[in-house]
Structure formats: structure tokens, C-alpha cells
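dumping this here so i dont lose it
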């Protein structure tokens, strides 16, 4: 369960992230592809070399979707409904990968917002990303 104070922490952190979606998104994706190289297989359509415009744009899209979900945290499943279809029916990303990306996103947030990313904010953001992963993988069967 996410408490009201956890929702406030998630909201405050993602309001900040919303100003840096491409930069932080690229950082998270580069970490994902470096630390968990098996994830590269999904990105046949995206030039994943560091500094690529497409990688940056893709990072921006992922972080923007998360910022939108955080801004409407009680309605995550409707906010992410079309992305849920995309990941389940078209991309067929194995749901284990959501955990790997979530880990990388938490590292980026900790790195970029060292003062705000307290242990309490860490828990709140972790729960938020678990919820997002549930929504994105709920249509798999
Ligand atoms: Zn994903 C896409 C989000 C996870 C893979 N994605 C995408 C997009 C978005 C997203 C927004 C775009 C869409 C359009 O364009 O319309 N994701 C997301 C999120 C998450 C995710 C929010 C969580 C958190 N993904 C993921 C993972 C993976 C992926 C984990 C693997 C590993 N995606 C993907 C791909 C794509 C996407 C491959 C497509 C790209 C291109 O461009 O092609």
C-alpha cells in the first residue's frame, strides 16, 4: 500500500524529473544496457550507442510516461493503458526487465537528487515503479 506521504514524495521527485526527461532517461537506459546487456535485444529499432539522438528521445518518452503516471498516481492503470497494450501485445518485453529498468531509474534518481532521495523517498519510488511494472505487464496473459 502506498500512503499519502509516499504519494507526496513520489509526486515531488517526479516533478523534478519532468524537467530533465531526456537527460535522465538516457542515463537510465545506458545503465540498463550496460549493467544488464541482455536487454539490448529489445532495442533493434533504436541506435543504442551513447549520445545517440534516438536513445535520448526514447529515454525522454519513458521518463515522460513515468512523470505522467506520478502526476496521476491514483489512476496509473488508465494513464498507462495504451503503453500496457504496447508492451504486452507488440513489444512483448519479458516482465523481468521492468525490475531491471526500475533499478536503474532508482540509481539515476539517487544520483541526480541526492538530498531528496532519502530512504523514505527510495521506498516510495520503489513502490511506484513496482506498481508501474504491474500495470505494464498486466495484459500479458
Ligand atoms: Zn518501454 C517504447 C515506456 C519499460 C522496451 N516504452 C516505449 C515508449 C514508452 C515506454 C513511453 C514509447 C511509446 C511510443 O512511442 O508510443 N517502457 C516504458 C516505461 C517502462 C518501460 C514507463 C517502465 C518503467 N520498455 C521497458 C523495458 C523494456 C522496454 C523494461 C525492455 C527492456 N519500450 C521498449 C521498446 C520500445 C519501447 C523496445 C520501442 C522503442 C522504439 O522506438 O522502437
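and the seq i came up w/
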Amino acid at each position: 500500500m502506498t500512503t499519502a506521504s509516499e504519494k507526496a514524495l513520489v509526486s515531488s521527485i517526479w516533478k523534478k524529473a519532468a524537467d530533465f526527461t531526456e537527460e535522465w532517461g538516457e542515463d537510465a537506459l545506458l545503465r540498463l544496457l550496460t549493467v544488464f546487456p541482455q536487454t539490448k535485444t529489445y532495442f533493434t529499432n533504436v541506435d543504442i550507442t551513447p549520445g545517440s539522438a534516438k536513445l535520448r528521445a526514447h529515454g525522454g518518452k519513458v521518463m515522460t510516461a513515468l512523470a505522467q503516471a506520478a502526476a496521476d498516481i491514483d489512476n496509473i492503470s488508465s494513464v498507462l493503458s495504451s503503453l500496457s497494450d504496447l508492451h504486452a501485445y507488440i513489444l512483448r518485453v519479458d516482465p523481468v526487465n521492468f525490475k531491471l529498468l526500475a533499478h536503474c531509474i532508482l540509481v539515476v534518481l539517487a544520483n541526480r537528487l541526492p538530498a531528496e532521495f532519502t530512504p523514505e523517498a527510495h521506498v516510495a519510488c520503489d513502490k511506484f515503479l513496482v506498481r508501474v511494472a504491474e500495470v505494464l505487464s498486466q495484459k500479458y496473459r
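The domain at 4-140 is CATH 1.10.490.10 (Globin-like).
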